[in-house]
Write a structure and sequence with these properties.
This protein has 21 helices and two strands. The chain has helices at about 10-20, 25-55, 80-100, 110-125, 130-150, 155-185, 190-200, 205-220, 230-235, 240-250, 250-265, 270-295, 300-320, 320-350, 360-365, 370-385, 390-405, 410-435, 450-465, 470-480, 485-495, and strands spanning about 60, 75.
Length: about 500
């Protein structure tokens, strides 16, 4: 396969963003272009994933013809491509949801160009083989997400955008300090070369500081405890099409970073890193679950739920066994699909409220005339809670099996209780919206946001629950690939 193909998942949305800006006076053409570009990019990514999975050889592009580590490497390995396919699937659904949304923000000429640059940033961050370029792509992602939130219909959108921007600015400072420390110590930022050099000499005095700074960076990106405080306000105020992306796939950039840290960059120090991830993961599972129980807003509830669900993923990475890492990957895919769908459904309900808001005081009882939406929300709640036959059950089953194999009984008990709490707060929300009678002065609007996008995502979660073998197999293959960092180093550096 031509190595240039690995550039297409990045270049297609980036080029479409520039063209969409030129087409700002023709919204329908903009929408079609965005959907077509995202579909094309996803198709290329899926073909690349299938090829790499089958051959076992990643697709590596060396920018400018310069051999690594001197040039810029774009690496399509199993981990990067799996995360990209997952992300672009949800982003395509997000663009589809925006096309049928009643939000004023989706009418802005810059909405789809910014949505496409957000896609570019996330895709590039997961495919780059260079730590500094990961920083650059992550900043493109942050800028796009900040602007999309600032123009929200919600009056608190600007405040939420400021919070997101400044906490991301802190993460950027941490990452730049980590990059500087590593470059001073090892003279390279190519991740394959860096991993090889750190493995050969882990005694550099700035290495512990670099590890701590990168950990903090990716914790902020994933809104992991104790860096979670910005997320609930942000997701409550952001446009639904945007918050559904940021709470489902954008937070996975941190998960991706943790996996690269523990399996490539800092293999000798991985046990200490995993211990930290296990602790914050368990705290996140418990705190996120109880916080979601006490919320007054459906979108805010789902934001706290993300803290808990990311906690489950970190527990899998923290245990560090082949089965638990595979479970974490399956869990990440399930959470991406279902969290996006659930936020879309919360936004769709809010679009029927007299004043658009997801506060339970405004949306209680509005679901009486929306049985189809209620079915989707019910199925989504089952998937989020890990109830069969959804893919959420498969991911939690794998995670619990890995915990049993590792004899982690205390952690298993804590996350088991949290799983029950997830079912409680999602079912309570379902009852309030679809079973309780609305207030006397509350009358639903006759139309609202369309349900095609969340229906597709819920359907995919059900399909992956009933036919889980392909996803589990690729997760296991990815785990096997990650267990041997020499293969990544050889693919990028040669030899």
């Amino acid at each position: 396969m031509n190595t240039h193909v690995v550039l297409l998942p990045i270049l297609i949305p980036l080029t479409a963003a520039a063209v969409a800006l030129l087409l700002r006076h023709w919204r329908r053409v903009q929408v079609g272009l965005a959907l077509g570009a995202l579909l094309a990019s996803l198709t290329v990514s899926a073909v690349l994933l299938g090829s790499v999975w089958q051959t076992g050889t990643p697709v590596v592009f060396q920018g400018g013809g310069w051999a690594a580590p001197f040039g810029i490497s774009i690496v399509g390995d199993l981990l990067g491509l799996l995360m990209v396919v997952m992300s672009q699937t949800v982003l395509l659904a997000g663009a589809l949801y925006a096309a049928g949304s009643k939000d004023s923000v989706v009418q802005y000429p810059a909405f789809y160009p910014l949505f496409l640059t957000l896609t570019t940033g996330l895709t590039g961050a997961m495919l780059t083989g260079d730590l500094f370029n990961l920083y650059v792509f992550a900043e493109l992602l942050v800028i796009s997400g900040t602007v999309l939130t600032a123009v929200s219909d919600d009056k608190y959108g600007t405040e939420a955008a400021y919070k997101y921007f400044y906490i991301s600015l802190l993460a950027a400072a941490f990452m730049l300090l980590a990059i500087g420390s590593l470059y001073v110590s090892y003279g390279t930022l190519n991740m394959a070369d860096l991993g090889q050099r750190i493995a050969a000499d882990g005694s550099q005095p700035l290495l512990p500081a670099a590890i701590a700074l990168l950990l903090a960076t990716f914790m902020i990106k994933s809104a992991v405890f104790p860096f979670h405080f910005w997320q609930p306000d942000f997701h409550t105020a952001a446009p639904t099409a945007v918050s559904a992306m940021l709470s489902s796939v954008v937070v996975k950039l941190g998960v991706y970073g943790f996996l690269r840290m523990t399996t490539l960059l800092f293999v000798a120090q991985a046990d200490a890193i995993r211990s930290v991830l296990l602790v914050v993961g368990v705290i996140g599972v418990i705190f996120g679950g109880f916080a979601a129980l006490g919320t007054h807003n459906a979108k805010r509830m789902l934001a706290y739920s993300t803290l808990a669900q990311i906690g489950f993923i970190l527990v899998g990475i923290g245990w560090g066994t082949p089965l638990s890492v595979a479970a974490a990957l399956v869990f990440a895919v399930n959470h991406s699909l279902i969290k996006a769908a659930m936020l879309m459904l919360a936004g769709a309900v809010a679009s029927r409220a007299p004043v658009k808001t997801a506060a339970f005081t405004a949306i209680t009882g509005l679901g009486h005339t929306l049985p189809g939406m209620g079915l989707l929300f019910f199925l989504g709640s089952m998937a989020l809670s890990g109830v069969p036959p959804t893919n959420g059950f498969i991911s939690k089953l794998l995670l619990f099996q890995s915990g049993v194999a590792a004899s982690e009984w205390m952690v298993l008990a804590l996350i088991g209780v949290s799983s029950v709490i997830t079912l409680v707060y999602t079912m309570r929300a379902f009852q309030r919206i679809w079973w309780q009678a609305p207030a006397a002065n509350v009358q639903a609007k006759p139309t609202g946001d369309r349900l095609l996008a969340p229906a597709l995502l819920v359907g995919l979660a059900l399909l992956l629950g009933l036919w889980a073998e392909p996803l589990v197999s690729v997760a296991q293959a990815t785990t096997a690939w990650l267990s041997d960092p020499v293969r990544y180093v050889t693919a990028v550096l040669g030899g």
